[in-house]
Amino acid sequence: AEKNGIDQSNKRKQEVYQNSLKAWQEKKNQFELKQREQHATVETDRIAYLARDIRGLSEYWDHILSKSEYPDGFPKEFLFDYMAEAKLLLLDFRLPDLSSLPTLKELKYVATKDEFQEVHVSDAWVNRTYDDVLYQITLRTLYELFQSDSVGALEAIVFNGWVNSIDKAT
């Protein structure tokens, strides 16, 4: 009777193992199928890029610009049009507005009042820095596009930078 109980226990363990193995193999097959599909998509995009196909170039440039890291609150919106015969890229790029820049310089603790006091940067500093930020974003974007152009599809880029903001004066 004891041997029969051991055999039953081993049988259950074997069934659990077989079920786990089937589930793992199914997940593995799904993963490999998804991986093959992704590789096929990447290869199709690569071939289109190397052939200077407009769709392939657009996908590539979209990927390049989407990977650029900017601070939180900075927009990541852009549109482009490509004129193949002139190797010209028309780029509309949304730039951050003035409110996207941080203005807090430091946080001081005032012991006599037992409170924190915020110290902000001057308006002149904000305006000067904002101008620099816009120029740097523009130059960085142009650099990234030209630097990544391994098939010689770009000879010129028209960069249109747009800022969405509300003029408080009007």
Summed up, the helix count is 3
Helical amount: 40-55%
Beginning-to-end CA distance, first to last residue:
94 Å
For the secondary structure, the number of strands is 5
In percent, how much strand structure appears in the residues?
Answer: 15-25%
| Overall radius of gyration | 29 Å
Q: What structural class is derived from the secondary structure elements?
A: alpha+beta
Instruction: Return the average pLDDT rounded to an integer.
Output: 91
Topology:
Blueprint: H1 2-50, H2 54-66, E1 78-83, E2 88-95, E3 104-110, E4 115-120, H3 123-147, E5 156-163
Parallel strand pairs: 2-5
Antiparallel strand pairs: 1-2, 3-4
Helix pairs in contact: 1-2
Polypeptide structure, described:
With 170 residues, this protein is an alpha+beta fold. The mean pLDDT is 91. Helix 1 packs across helix 2. 6% of the residues are buried. The strands form 2 sheets. The chain has a 3-stranded mixed β-sheet, covered by helices on one side. It has a two-stranded antiparallel sheet with strand order 3-4. The N and C termini lie far apart (94 Å). Helix content is 51%, strand content 21%. Strand 3 and strand 4 form a beta hairpin. It has 3 helices and 5 strands, in the order ααββββαβ.
